[in-house]
Design brief:
Length: 266
């Protein structure tokens, strides 16, 4: 029997990009899916594709990660229908393409509100159910910028670093429970992330940057993520040569700082 068959999997940011690819990948494995995003039309399109791909069932739960107070009620209503969540995939979020000096504090706050606090709020709402069943797997899609910062990503990198701090701590706290925590750190992935990224004023960038356009195919990444989940990895890195940045910063920080000055990050 397939590892993911009949598992109840909740995926945020499911309307496009990595979230869409993960939804299809889990569907092909026969999972029960709860798909969340703000875009009803696109998420319903993904839901239909998931049913066609072989999902055991698909449920759409509209969720705005910036509306923290609404999350517990949404989770409660969902759990009444599905009973439990086997795998939570925290994928929803927004990116940034602006210099720190040119970025308003409101934009910094929005990135933290969505990427960090929204993810934490959803996790905290679902965690008691996992504890009750003594079973579950929390998967959070962060970024290589959760391990090192780059130009034009100050607030984005900060939000991803924060996720690493929170979920590393949570993993230690859940050591004696049958609940796993996995952090997934992709590099450049060929999605609309740069088009939807916020500029310093809060408007969308609206263009595809070169590095993203040449990034990993989302479906290929999704397959690798599912394998990392099945293997119970605590942390996994995916991408091209940008993955080397983790090791360069760790062992050769001064050299890495110089490399960043020449990196094409937008």
């Amino acid at each position: 029997m397939d590892f993911f068959r009949n598992k109840r999997v909740w995926i945020t940011g499911a309307s496009s990009g990595i979230g869409e690819a993960l939804s299809i990948a889990f569907a092909e494995k026969g999972a029960h899916l709860i798909l969340s995003a703000r875009n009803d039309v696109e998420t319903n399109r993904v839901a239909a594709a998931c049913l066609e791909a072989g999902a055991a069932s698909v449920m759409f739960r509209r969720l705005d990660l910036e509306q923290h107070d609404s999350i517990p009620e949404i989770v409660s209503a969902t759990l009444k229908q599905v009973g439990k969540i086997d795998i939570l995939v925290n994928n929803g979020g927004i990116s940034q393409r602006s210099l720190a000096l040119e970025t308003t504090l409101d934009v910094d706050k929005k990135l933290m509100a969505v990427n960090y606090f929204g993810t934490v709020a959803l996790t905290k709402a679902i965690l008691p159910n996992m504890m009750m069943h003594q079973l579950g797997h929390i998967v959070t899609i962060t970024s290589l910028t959760g391990k090192f910062g780059t130009p034009y990503r100050s607030a984005y990198a900060a939000s991803k670093h924060a996720l690493h701090g929170f979920f590393d701590s949570l993993r230690a706290e859940l050591h004696d429970a049958q609940i796993k925590v996995t952090l997934i750190c992709p590099g450049f992935v060929r999605t609309n992330v740069s088009k939807n990224a916020l500029t310093g004023s809060g408007s969308k960038l609206g263009t595809m940057d070169e590095a993203t356009d040449k990034g990993m195919d989302p479906a290929r990444l999704a397959s690798k993520i599912l394998q990392a989940i099945q293997d119970g990895k605590q942390e996994a890195y995916f991408g091209g040569k940008e993955v080397l940045g983790i090791y360069l910063k760790r062992f050769f920080p001064a050299y890495f700082a110089k490399v960043l000055l020449k990196a094409k990050v937008r």
